[in-house]
Amino acid sequence: MIAAPESTMASRENAYAPDPNLRIWIDGEIVSPAEAKISVFDHGLLYGDGVFEGIRIYNGRIFKDREHIDRLYESAKCLLLDVPMSKEEMSGAMNAAMEANNIIDGYLRVIVTRGVGLLGIAIGHTACPSVIIIAASIQLYPPEVYQRGLRCITAGTLRNHPSSTSPRVKSLNYLNNIMAKAEAKNAGSDEAIMLNSEGHVTEGTGDNLFVVRRGELHTPPPSEGILEGITRRLVMELARKRGYTVAESALIRHDIYVAQECFLTGTAAEIVPVVSLDGRAIGDGKPGPITKDLMQDFIAYRNRV
Ligand code: PMP
Questions:
Q1: Is residue 170 annotated as a catalytic residue, yes or no?
Q2: Which residue positions in the chain have pLDDT lower than 50?
Q3: 48, 145, 191, 254: which could form a disulfide with 172 (CB 3.0–4.6 Å)?
């Protein structure tokens, strides 16, 4: 065996090492990170062939578990991938992963890979799909970002066309989003807004987008090529409870430039204000009052359940 030169290892400043005390649920067993392994022949690795979910745990309870499980199974169905367990078993496994790690507030990553197969892309040759559940603490944006808001750019990398593998499928292929996020970083920005092939706004790289215009909330419909976010759905409900009109509307960048407010929603970020796009201030360049109200409502909601 040829060992990697030590200098290569040492130069990886941001090298991540998983906490050895973590317990990973993998194909029915709970093991250490070192023991949690999949084959190099797994099509999840070879082709990004698989699906996943990111789920929060608040106060020792899995938040919106049913919604996440439903979306996972829908994503899998769309990819002709049979999740090798029932939804009830999946729920039990998620709880087992949470309990094995004593998580009160944290995050679960559920992954279903196509499984081991020949090097070709045909799916008939693959063995049983693998299910992996990783428990983790969550890396939110730092608190000051929620105070000052995100500065965003428009990404040159487009969201997948809805007629290709639909963005509604939460698949293991995140390369467009990864490249768009890298564009934001290279431009000295916090986040990127992705357009579709018609130049319409879709969403952030891992969060859905809302704008406030003339006191009404607008968010792009699924047909524009977005992931139908579970947080998005909840925020639409919370906003309607406050009496706001919420519409699913096709948006172009103009709508963000002239919006009073803009914010992103997602499992990890929750609700995060957006205060500029492409160097242009949105509204007065500060998190807006409706965004702040909804942030409070969201926190109250997730603390209650
Ligand atoms: N869009 C994309 C591309 C995502 O990956 C996610 C999840 N991180 C979201 C939106 C938000 O979805 P949810 O609210 O269900 O986390």
A1: yes
A2: 1-10
A3: 48
